[in-house]
Amino acid sequence: MWTSEHKPVVGVFGFSGCAGDQLRLVHMEDELVTLFTTAEIKFFHMAQSHQEVDHVDIALVEGSINTKKQLEELKEIREKSTFLVALGTCACFGGIQYLNEKDKAFEERFKHVYGSNIKKEDFTVGEAIPPQPLCNFVKVDAMVPGCPIEKDNLLPIYTKLIKGIKPQKYPAPVCVECKLEGNDCLLLHGIPCIGPVVSAGCGAICPSHNLPCVGCWGPYEAANYKSMLDKLEEIGVDKETALRKLKLFGGSKAEEELEKVIK
Amino acid sequence: MKTYKLMKEDFPQFLSLLQEKGNLYGPVKSKNHYSFEKIDDLSKLTFNYTRTLMGLKKFVTPPRYKVKHFDKSGSEDIIPENETNIVIGAHPCDIHAMKILDKLFLGQIKDPYYKKRRENLVIVGHSCMPDENCLCTSTGTDMVSDGFDLFLTELQDFYLVWVGSSKGLFIIMSSEDLFSEKIDMCDIAEYTTWQENRQNSFKTTIPFHLMPDIIHLIYEKDELWNQFGEKCLSCGTCSLVCPTCNCFNVEDKILINADEVVRERMLDSCTLPYYSVVAGDHDFRPDRTKRLKLYYTHKLKEYIGKWGQPACVGCGRCVTYCPVGINVKTVSNAFYEAIQCVREVKKI
Amino acid sequence: MISDRSKLENPYEDHLATIIDYRDLTSDTRYYKLKFVDPEIQKHTGDYRPGQFAMFSIPGVGEAPFSISSTPTRPAFLEFGIRKVGSFTDALFKKKEGDTVYIRGPYGNGFDMERMEGKDIVIVSGGLGAVPLRSVLLYLEDKRELYNNVFFLNGARTPDDMLFKEDFLAMHAREIIETHLTVDKDPTGEWNHNVGVVTTLFEKINGRVDNDNAYALICGPPVMYKFVIKELLEMDFSKKNILMTLERRMKCGQGHCGHCAIHGVYTCLDGPVFNFWDYERMVELI
Ligand SMILES: Cc1cc2nc3c(=O)[nH]c(=O)nc-3n(C[C@H](O)[C@H](O)[C@H](O)COP(=O)(O)OP(=O)(O)OC[C@H]3O[C@@H](n4cnc5c(N)ncnc54)[C@H](O)[C@@H]3O)c2cc1C
Ligand code: SF4
Ligand code: SF4
Ligand code: SF4
Ligand code: SF4
Ligand code: FES
């Protein structure tokens, strides 16, 4: 634990995402006062230079890495921080924008929207690279997925980190929370829920409202994509739709695993 | 066992009596399934049901509960207050499952959190009719003679009320005029006819008695286990809904607005990936097949060896709720079928 | 420590203990000496068997099991040897002299020391395995007259990796227990004991153990068991007298949480000490 005189410094950094997770932090009214009294919190905007940071105890990093410049900044943040936490599904797994990478139709759509005079490069800050989750480049000490993150997921980890305690992970899929919420299973009624391959954390909100999970909390560590695909097929989802569902929030992990399965 | 007769027209009054004695819980329909819920409106109660999603375990090992509280002054155990929770509508398998949990939590070393919740619980059982997923005749848990406080067998115009404990008797005594000890020959005939009819309604038998030996002998034949390991989603459903699965995990939470910590227990499952991971990230059960082996050897082999009965009460929850059809029925049948061909070869 | 947990109203009851001494054993492993804060509890400090373990608790971090490394014959304090591997041990390593942790226990079956009286005993440890076996060794030193020949074979990767190296060198010098130490490699060049894996020490005791009346106690990394057991079987040790202590994930320490189950046994209740028959019966033991 930190010594009692030391007030931990928390840096909040944003890369490519919607900033929804940072907003979520600011919106924790009940806890906000304590958040700011137990730690010194600094927000660093995307545009702001990260050079002015010399050391943070905890780096909360939102968004995926989309440019070379971001990658350099990420590496710098890693060097300057004790604990690095990936905040939100984009930072943890790549997020929706990960689809960008493998989607051959991207250029075409881009042209359709912006015309052929504007180039893709003009939009990015520096040279673009395929969107990737943080863990593909640096060591990530803890992941808090969510789109946006849920206060009840972040707080237990945050309260440990500001006391210098490493949080332990115990991965589970949405189905666990779904059962604890007292739902039976949508798959049994032919509704294409992908909860079995998605990280728990949201409290199974969608299945609790009779809506299938679409996977916004990102992939579950022990996801069995082969069996999930077979099950979706069994209840009448065609392969293409099924793959699209699994990839939507699945990021690089889903992509890799699905490739193996299809082979 | 003392047995009384309760006329159906007096049943509502019996329910009100229970409500006076404590918090009443019972089966209600919620969305696509049934569940034991707190009853404020008696009309919500449904006894014509087969199984609830979660059995009685939610009363004694809730999905998530606090066990300890720490602050500057020290640590304090969080043991529930004395209260009376009456659950009506439990089926024989549910009651057998509770007896299995009792053995585990109230054996030589008694779990204080379970103990208090169990003492607070009054179980009023209710007769049932099986569906095709009920396996309790195979596990020997289709009938129950203890483990409940009262048990109701629903017949045409009346209930037979079996008394299983002094708590149960006390409920009867407190409203004696509702119950009659006059059970005549025709009442008995009606009961035995019902009983026979129920016995004949069971569609599924599984050779559970052979499983300890079969599992022992095929334990290392991974091809038999892999057919399930490859399909399993590691979703935890089978353990969470199983009324005899007791595994829990423990987690500390630091409260943000104060210098306090609560230690919580939550239901766990041996099908989850980190169940057996120890220091140095060494994993004793790194794949799904190994984890399912634990589940099924525990349920169908080891427990029989230790207690003479499986740790499965045949409630059919895993049969109903596993999304990919891995359950005591399919697993036992697959193993049983696998040994059939060996026998034929031998006959020649 | 209250060894009969079934007598307690609350077997999860834990007690504050103060760190009265600690030092680094190796680069990642530390020695801790603890004393209960409550004098009433402190009186029962020695109520445990060698081979048993205790559950440590740090509020906000959680609980973790650690083998007791001291001996009940010296009941003034408890000693542990703890390796820093993750969340709990990280938090523990930040504690200093005078800081406290909660402790409950003892748990597990431990070694039945009375049963081994009058017999030969061979103790083999590797790496962290020296921690629980140190309890047995100190116990045997204190009650040496009750036992026949006692041999101690201990291995580590390098001299710097040897836990309790000073203790064991002193033990070697005291000669109450015949002690043989080895290291896989000696980069220091200052090691004047055996060099080679722990099984190379067996030639020192070959032919000197009364196999029919002997016990072997083993603890070490999983790979070590296989080779050591092979040696012992070649020496004609009885399978039920080869005892080993094992590790599993543990959340409760007393048969409730399920995590430590191996087939039908709970490592926390029926173990962590198992014999070689158990191993043959339960393929997943090691
Ligand atoms: C009977 C027994 C005796 C032990 N004796 C010693 C000892 O004398 N010295 C020593 O250094 N270590 C000992 N251990 C191991 C020690 O308990 C683990 O190193 C410790 O729990 C790791 O906790 P952590 O939070 O630091 O690590 P974690 O942050 O949890 O990460 C390290 C790994 O340990 C695993 N782990 C978490 N909790 C437990 C648990 N309760 N039991 C086992 N593994 C767990 C995690 O899954 C992870 O893979 C013993 C274990 C057992 C079961
Ligand atoms: S509804 Fe979805 S999340 Fe719930 S158990 Fe079924 S598959 Fe899992
Ligand atoms: S889509 Fe899935 S992960 Fe996202 S909120 Fe809904 S249930 Fe949770
Ligand atoms: S319910 Fe079925 S898929 Fe889920 S963990 Fe159990 S066996 Fe595996
Ligand atoms: S194993 Fe399946 S059938 Fe048996 S008690 Fe558990 S849920 Fe019911
Ligand atoms: S540690 Fe909980 S059952 Fe053994």
Automatic annotation (TrEMBL), chain A:
Domain NADH:ubiquinone oxidoreductase-like 20kDa subunit, residue spans: 18-158
Name of protein: Hydrogenase
Keyword match Oxidoreductase: yes
Keywords: Oxidoreductase
tRNA processing keyword on record: no
GO MF term list: iron-sulfur cluster binding; oxidoreductase activity
PROSITE patterns in the cross-refs: PROKAR_LIPOPROTEIN
From TrEMBL, chain B:
Domain of life of the organism encoding this protein: Archaea
Gene3D superfamilies in the cross-refs: Alpha-helical ferredoxin
Listed PROSITE patterns: 4FE4S_FER_1, 4FE4S_FER_2
GO molecular function ontology, one term from the record: iron-sulfur cluster binding
Stored Pfam families: Fer4_22
4Fe-4S ferredoxin-type domain segment(s): 221-253, 303-333
Signal peptide: none
InterPro entries according to UniProt: 4Fe4S_Fe-S-bd, 4Fe4S_Fe_S_CS, Helical_ferredxn
UniProt protein name: 4Fe-4S dicluster domain-containing protein
From TrEMBL, chain C:
GO terms of molecular function: 2 iron, 2 sulfur cluster binding; flavin adenine dinucleotide binding; metal ion binding; oxidoreductase activity
InterPro entries recorded: Cbr1-like_FAD-bd_dom, Cyt_c3_hydrogenase_gsu, Dihydroorotate_DH_Fe-S-bd, FAD-bd_FR_type, FNR_nucleotide-bd, OxRdtase_FAD/NAD-bd, PyrK_electron_transfer, Riboflavin_synthase-like_b-brl
Cofactor(s) this protein requires: [2Fe-2S] cluster
Cofactor note text: Binds 1 [2Fe-2S] cluster per subunit.
Keywords: 2Fe-2S, Iron, Iron-sulfur, Metal-binding
Protein name: FAD/NAD(P)-binding protein
Gene3D superfamilies in UniProt: Nucleotide-binding domain of ferredoxin-NADP reductase (FNR) module (3.40.50.80), Translation factors (2.40.30.10)
Positions contributing to [2Fe-2S] cluster binding: C252, C257, C260, C268
Residues annotated as domain FAD-binding FR-type: 12-113
Pfam hit, one: NAD_binding_1
Gene Ontology annotations of biological process type: pyrimidine nucleotide biosynthetic process
Keyword flag Nucleotide-binding: no
